[in-house]
Amino acid sequence: MRPRGAGEWLAYGLLYLSIILVTLPVAAVLFIVISRGYSAISWEFLTAMPRMGMRAGGIFPAIMGTLLLVLGTVAIALPLGVMAAIYLSEYASRGRLNRLIHLAIVNLAGVPSVVYGLFGLGAFVLFLKLGVSLLAGCLTLALMILPVIITASEEALQAVPQSFREASLALGATRWKTIWNVVLPSALPGILTGAILGVGRAAGETAPILFTAAAFFLPRLPKSIFDQVMALPYHLYIIATQVPNISQSVQYGTALVLVGLVLLVNASAIVLRSYIRRRRSW
Amino acid sequence: METTACIIDVAGLNFYYGKFQALKDISLQLEPRKITAFIGPSGCGKSTFLRTLNRMNDLIAGVRIDGKVMIDGRDIYAPDMDVVELRRRVGMVFQRPNPFPMSIFDNITYAPRMKGQHKGLDDLVERTLIKAALWDEAKDKLKASALSLSGGQQQRLCIARALAADPGILLMDEPCSALDPVSTLRIEDLMQSLKNEYTILIVTHNMQQAARVSDYTGFFLSGELIEFGDSNKIFTKPDDKRTEDYITGRFG
Amino acid sequence: MAIERSLTIDSIDVKKSRRSGRWSEWVIERVIQASGLLTIVFIVLIFVFLLKDSLPLFKTHSLTALLTGRDWYPISDPARFGLVPLLAGSLAVTLGSIVIAVPLGVAAAIYLAEVARPSIRESVKPVVEMLAAIPSVVFGFIGLLILAPYVKSLFDLPTGLTAMTGSIMLAFMALPTIISISEDAISAVPREYREASLALGATQWQTISRVMVPAALSGITAAVMLGIGRVIGETMTVLMVTGNAALIPHSITQPVRTMTATIAAEMGETVQYSEHYFALFSIGAVLFVITFAINFTADIVLHRFRRVGR
Ligand SMILES: Nc1ncnc2c1ncn2[C@@H]1O[C@H](COP(=O)(O)OP(=O)(O)OP(=O)(O)O)[C@@H](O)[C@H]1O
Ligand SMILES: [Mg+2]
Fold first, then answer.
1. pTM reported for the whole predicted model
2. Is A166 in contact with B98 (Cβ distance < 8 A)?
3. Does residue A14 form part of some domain?
4. Residues C150 and C195 in one domain
5. Could you tell me which of B153, A122, A167 has the C-alpha nearest to residue C272?
6. Is the pLDDT of residue C2 over 50?
7. How many structural domains compose chain A?
8. C-chain residues within 8 Å CB-CB of A210?
9. Average pLDDT of the residues in A60-64
């Protein structure tokens, strides 16, 4: 690339500037939460119950709550999402129905998270009478990450060479046996990447659990799936806006744990994906 | 040819990809335990024909077929025909070696395992690999990935994999086109030794190969079976001018 | 004897597996099919439940009053549920963020697709994904503690919690969507176009600005629309940084309250199945319809673009 004339220099200059402005916020967020939050991080902070109206002690129940929510969410969304992706990629013919399902997925992905929260409240908490509970939260979050998992899994399935399917079918394997023994194993790493991205998404969301699962303050672990839970993102919202006279180090410490968790999850998905691309053998 | 002796009996077969007719009124009968070669210019329908015999074309949306294809005396397009059974009976080797990304052992035992056979697999692997002339090269690395084999070895593995399904008929679609001359010769030898047990149909662009290995030859041109008969005759004095032109290289 | 049969994937194998008694596979395949169809069921269910819990509002209030009312006084007596200030709040924040994010995002996409070396592209793209991964509550938190005080002192305002603060934070959240989809669109332009232009003696910049970007324009448009959809639906960030005053703003340096923030802030305090509850659900329904329309249109645009592009 060789710019010609002042106009082009300016244009390229702006392009470079844009890339700096785009990468800057990630660096800034990381820098801010790390530099201001790390002093709060201690063994006690991670493993103790909150005390003094959440101003002291630890954030253990919030961390555990988020882990439980994420686990339950993935347990629901992963099988459902992978099966839907198998249908789209291996069974559905490329017709109207397929297009309709894709439109549904695109729109599911576009539904605002707070609307998922409303739906969870109306459908799971009240209509199915699950109450504000871990289960209702997981169901709501599962619905929200379903498009992520379907899209990633479908992509992974489509990347499996057609020749694998033909070879298996020509050997007299049934369609399902072909999928189970040949297609799915080859697509597994890609599906896993999608699942991890879904985990990251579910771990960071607040609005969907606002009215379905999250407890303002509950200094214990949930006793059953019908119990409320604390969750990291909601806890950060609470201590940032609803708790007066709280030390900034507790706030930033909580933010650091949340950001660290979510970025770690996402980084592992990115690493896994580039690993797949490098060692893909076909 | 008497009908009792024929294992594959095709009559009035037409095949369409959507509106495009890829096979036009094909009729022929094949004897068991013979090698039949199909030749013809690119796009003339050889692969399509082969794939009608194990119904691999079913996988393509919007195709249509009419006519009769009988294998072992059964109409394979009859509504009560089980495709899975058919494909176990009629094995296929593809143009490009396509081993699964599994171990050599798992590749070969794939079809038996799909049938629910889990005993005697070690024996079976040995027998099949010997048949496919791959035993000496592969016996020490049965657990190694099939992708670690060379292209020629991979193709012999694919042949072994097809044989392990215990087919009576083997369809081979340009099995040597991705291989070097030495591997090609080994596969031709292999075909000769398999002839005692299997009915083999091979598509090839290599005239010498067709002449060397086959008992019968069929010549396709734009979806039609122009000429079918004894290989010696087809390659020395064909009846049809178009066959002669193609074989002498004018169609290339 | 000619037998005609139409072969399609669906007809053949499914029948076969039933016929040969492979019942377990038949069941599995039905379950898989059901999962595929479930996605449609879900989107319909969401809308049905939003309607179910918002329609009772219209026993006491009219739809026009909701959509054109200029007052949102949910707990006064009688309560007034006018969406206009909330719509205005959402609109102000969205417009502001789009003004920032579109030029920035499209420029970054052009850079990544056309200018950047592969090594740079491969290291910047994960950063963009990281940006997408940062939870909205964290953006809200940073906006609240870092950006708001700056805005307050810079413009000498009574509060730093304004529409503008929200716009800036939301711009970051719209960027990943705009960048990744625009970049895909530009990369999907056939390379022949670029080669043809360069072969005619155009400079690289001329090629980018006169050939590549115009050819990718509908894809970029879709990217911008999806970015807008993302911003309108964003909740926690705006809840934390826009000040939450349900007033029609006259300038972007005033506090506003968006539709999403209203739901999030007030649902916790309502009585279930009360008027207020129904009113919040009707905001949800309005949001759903807006985002559905945006995503639907964007997808149609993208779909057409891909078909033409190939
Ligand atoms: N899936 C398909 N959809 C539509 N048309 C097809 C499809 N597969 C093949 N055809 C067409 O059918 C004709 C026959 O194709 P076929 O693959 O049988 O040729 P071939 O003789 O095997 O050629 P080659 O020697 O190149 O392998 C060709 O004109 C081809 O374009
Ligand atoms: Mg062919």
1. 0.86
2. yes
3. no
4. yes
5. A122
6. no
7. 1
8. 264, 267-268
9. 92
* Inter-chain residue contact C134 with A259, CB threshold 8 Å: yes
Record the tokens describing residue B127, joined without a space. 């027998």
Select the residue of B12, B63, B82 nearest C16 (Cβ to Cβ): B82
Q: Check whether residue C33 and residue C157 sit in a common domain.
A: no
pLDDT value of residue C164: 92
pLDDT at position A218 over 50: yes
- Whether residue A260 is contained in a domain is answered as yes
Q: What is the pLDDT of residues B158-204, one digit of tens each?
A: 999 999 998 999 999 999 888 888 888 888 998 999 999 999 999 99
C6 domain-assigned = yes
Distance CA A80, CA A148 (A): 12
> Residue C57 domain-assigned?
no
What letter would DSSP give residue B177? T
pLDDT given for residue B126 in this prediction: 94
Tell me, what's the pLDDT at B5?
65
Indicate which of A15, A238, A270 best probes the interface with C, i.e. most C CBs within 10 Å of its own CB: A15
Domains of chain B: 8-94+167-247 (3.40.50.300)
Residue pair A80/A150 in contact (Cβ under 8 Å)? The answer is no
Residues of the domain holding A231: 58-281
The long-range contacts involving A26-34, CB below 8 angstroms and separated by at least 24 positions, are A26/C127, A26/C130, A26/C131, A26/C134, A29/A259, A29/C134, A29/C138, A29/C139, A29/C142, A30/A259, A30/A263, A32/A252, A32/C142, A32/C146, A33/A252, A33/A255, A33/A256, A33/A259, A33/C138, A33/C142, A34/A256
d(CA C47, CA A115): 10
When scoring C8, C15, C26 by the number of chain B Cβ atoms within 10 A, the one with the most, hence best to mutate, is C8
B48 lines ligand 1 (CB under 6 A): yes
Tokens standing for C64? 């026009």
Residue C15 structural domain: 2-52
Q: CB contact, 8 Å: A115 with chain C?
A: yes
Q: Is residue A169 part of a domain?
A: yes
H helix or E strand, kind and range, residue B90: strand B90-93
Token couple for B91: 């094995």
Residue C59 in any domain: the answer is no
Q: How many domains does chain C have?
A: 2
Q: Any idea which residue has 């369609």 for tokens?
A: A175
Determine how β-strand B63-71 pairs with β-strand B74-75.
antiparallel
Q: Per this entry, what is the length of chain A?
A: 282
Contact B66 C20 (CB under 8 A): no
Sort out which chain B residues have CB atoms less than 8 A from A165's CB and list them: 59
Is the complex ipTM higher than 0.95?
no
The token duo for A169 is 């079918």
Within a domain: residue A47? no
